[in-house]
Amino acid sequence: MGARSDKLTDKQELYVQQLLLPKMTQRKAYRIAYPSSVHWKDKSVDESASRTFHIPKVSARFNELKDKIDKKMEEKFMLTVEDILKDIIEVKERCMQQQQVMVKVNDELIDTGVWKFEHSGALKSLELLGKYKKMFTDKIELNGTLEVKDNLTDKELAEKIKLLQSKIKG
Fold first, then answer.
1. How many domains does the chain have?
2. pLDDT in tens, 92-125
3. Residue 97 and residue 70 share a domain
4. Residues 32 and 18 occupy one common structural domain
5. Which residues of 59-93 are buried (b: 16+ CB within 10 A; e: fewer)?
6. In a 3-state reduction of DSSP, which class is residue 23?
7. Which of 10, 26, 101, 125 lies deepest, with the highest CB count within 10 Å?
8. Are the beta carbons of 70 and 52 closer than 8 angstroms?
9. Percent of the chain that is helix, strand, coil (3-state, to 5)
10. How far apart are CA 85 and CA 70, in angstroms?
């Protein structure tokens, strides 16, 4: 047999490009790239779309184009993760500054002995920082390898993942 090409077919390339469009699902992208699938059952389309996406050269192309889009967006908005984190921290610090509560009595400001701060802004910024640091997630991070065969359906793959997760949890 001849060497396999790293070049995508026209349909694979169209599928990847469609996937990168806003609000595009794998099913819709697959049906656009592979018009004969329009008459297939949704489950069949979903399985074929998943198999196609997991072809190494297809997923590599997807990641390549996504990285290019991300870089262009970063350049366009001139925002980096560091910029956003810096701003969130600044909001947190401003919102957590305590302010004395004063009341006006007969045109005179009187100290009430009470202090306040902007709790909603402080909590939201703390929440965003916590999410960034993955402090509030129920996700389980798995390390290791998982053998994925082309003939595995999505359902079979999901069952294998559940089995592995249950083994990890003990």
1. 3
2. 888 888 888 888 889 888 888 877 878 888 888 8
3. no
4. yes
5. eebbeeeeeeeeeeeeeeeeeeeeeeeeebeebbe
6. coil
7. 125
8. no
9. 60, 10, 30
10. 17
